Give the backbone structure.
Amino acid sequence: MALTLRALADDRPLGLRVLTGEDVLDRPIAWVHPTELTDPQAFLEGGELLLTTGLALAEETSPAYVRRLVDAGVAGLGFGVGLSHDDVPRALVATAAEVGLPVLEVPRKTPFIAITRAVSRAVAADEYATTVRIGRAQQELTRTAVGKGGPAGVVRKLAKLVDGWVLLLDTVGVEGAAPATAQSYADVVREELKQLRSGTRVFDLDGHEVVLQTLHTRVRRALAVGTAEPLDTAGRHVVNTAVALLSLALEQDLKLTHAWRFLRTGVVDLLAAGQHELALGVMSTAWGDPPEPPWAVVALVGGPAQRRRAGYALEGDTSLFFAESGSAVIVIGRSGSDVLERALTAAASVGPMYAGLVDPVPLENFAVAAEQADLAARAAEADGKPLVTYAEHSARGLLSLIDPVVARIYGENLLAPLRRHDESGRGDLVESLRCWLEHHGHWDVAAARLGVHRHTLRNRITKVQELLGRDLDSPGVRAELWVALQA
């Protein structure tokens, strides 16, 4: 805590007497500067306690002198009496009282060096305390970042260290908030973030000073820190430390998250391929005992960002399993449980997403059930409903009039060239065709849903035409392909 004028005046051995500015003595003293110049502004930075004996001052020149000191931003004036002046000039005192400049009378017995030493000791102690505070805060943040707390723990710890609120934002929404009420500031902070490409921005919000700083991550993120008072030197260092730790932790977390996502998708692929024993073994090893069949299978469809955020929302729920598959998130739980409710809650928290449900599902029928749930979810999306069960969807669809075996053989034969292409790892033609047809050939909308550039989608659809030897501009061809995809 910096030494204030009041604390200095209360130092009895110095014998200082307050002449003016009693109400502003809580000003901190940055340093002490003795001078007899009548205009020392060029040598001041602001916040100093200026010491003078008034060698070049008189009653007539004192008012202008005081105003120059105020313009220079000094904290106060210490006037030594008993040398050039027996008393502090009355004009100086009157002007200082008028403009709010604290004046301390320094007795003849008190050398200026004693005041300088007192301030110097306080500044050194304050700097040491700041260094200790920064070091301890950095240790606490580092332990939190490398421990179980992770990025969310760093956000909570930072809020406590700066005695304020903290938001961690990404391109979709809020990744972390401390305390929870900080969520209410998210919309305003996001608007401010639009004006910040990188670096730091400071603004006022509901009586708080908010420091908004971008993180050094591949995915655009930012940290917002709101405090009732502006951050001091230690506070700024602590925030910078949090930014560095979060940037590192989130990059590492991103790589690990991608690896787990791919593993989850691989498990679903194994289930769909009939490798049930192997899939269940992986699930048990990596996430604990899987849900007991028969299952309820839920498909959640939405954009890439929504699917990713839905995975975050479902993470940690050990009573279910989820994975991205194509352009959907497949959620598996025990039949008759509340898996649907939990999936819908996750979808609602990141929206917009749409759900399809198949229940019950024997283990051996998983591949068909996953596709059926996906179809029902896309029907929900088309109807603007949060949920459609496959039973509802199949009861009204064209495919209900066709023998399922015949329909599946027809679809497999028609789409076989595309599936062979996709299985070779050269693209994702089946899903691209499905999405393009769902959105009636609107390139921009379908590309956004797939998370690719529209030129990429055009190239994929051109490849579909080449492999199938069909003209996709024909309504009949589109109808046949749509039926094949549904089958």
Summary: The chain has 17 helices and 15 strands.
